[in-house]
Amino acid sequence: MRRRACRLSIVAVPFLLTMAVSAPTAVADPAPDSVLPAALADAVARDLGLDPQQFLDRADAARRLAEFIATTGSDAVTNAWLDENGRPVIAVAEGPTHADVADAASAGGFEVETAPIEIPGTVLDVVQPLVDLLPFDPSPIAGPIRPSSYLGGDSFLAGTPAGLGQRCSLGFNAVDPTHGSVNITAGHCNPNTADTGSAALTGAYPMYGSLVGSKFGSFYRTSQSHNDYALIDVDDANVGEFESNAVRVPGAAPLHVTGTVDPIVGAPVCKSGSRTGFSCGTILSTGQNVTLGENVFDRSFSTSICALRGDSGGPIVSGTLAVGIASASNVGDQPSCEIAMVFSMLQGQRPELFATPINDVLADNPGLTIRTS
């Protein structure tokens, strides 16, 4: 299925650096490890009707589904999802291994379906065949949060020497074996993709409201084929500010990322973006074709999350696990999520955010690892 959506970057941002702007000198206290940050807990309650523990429990159920499929093999499973009550369900393929796989699924606490079925109506889309899923990787490579740290969800400007730029959101902080500290964001945020990897690299600059700070890095890889993502090489002088594994609403307490997981239909997810902050929903489908201008991304997953221009590149998490990078929305041009909800309802739709799976980005770049704790 090919879907057409609008990109979530804000274009034509004035690119003036006549005033030096430094990073904030204070950072919010981190939330206790067992509790979601207040801003995220509010979004989970508002958008999903769940308390923090229910959100974490459902996210963990989706993770266990992904790990089961990775261990068993995708040929043994036809579909997998969380139902409307958060119950993990597996449809086991017919064949010589059916009984063994069904027994293992039951022992793992999964509901077993023995025949192909449609996803429950609350999910709206038919489940796409699951791709081979990568295992959960909890390797700890995160550093401390400093007052000057940049975290996933923070606002930045992707600018060119010609003075053009697009406002986007930082994604997950990561480590590249060649470039060191990097940030993973959306590929369409780069307004100068033709020069990616050349001497005319697009620069990345922090934004504080309408003010632009000093350059912290440059785009060194931009993908607009199959997946929409870009990698920002952090300048040596700013490496210490990108060592954290956290995502946040700017100025609020952070959520620490503990690993990665592939998208599972029905899993609860939340995105952090510099325009709309935390907003949450569920994964509707995987393996989506999404058209952005002349580009077609054929590995996207879709969610019932509202996102607007400026949220592009922001991180999407399920529980404390990284799932993807915000890419495009069917309501991105609306002035607010409240108006977007009414507008989409009048059209018989609802807000929908399309995203790039984080594990696809890591697989495309051998050795690239997001920072985790």
TrEMBL record:
Protein name: S1 family peptidase
InterPro entries: Peptidase_S1_PA, Peptidase_S1_PA_chymotrypsin, Streptogrisin_prodomain, Trypsin_dom, TRYPSIN_HIS, TRYPSIN_SER
Keyword Ubl conjugation among record annotations: no
Domain of life assignment: Bacteria
Taxon lineage: Bacteria, Bacillati, Actinomycetota, Actinomycetes, Mycobacteriales
Signal peptide location: 1-23
Claim: NADP is one of the keywords in the record: no
PROSITE patterns linked to this entry: TRYPSIN_HIS, TRYPSIN_SER
CDD domains: alphaLP-like (cd21112)
Keywords: Signal
Source organism of this protein record: Rhodococcus navarretei
Record-annotated Peptidase S1 domain positions: 184-335
Coiled coil: none
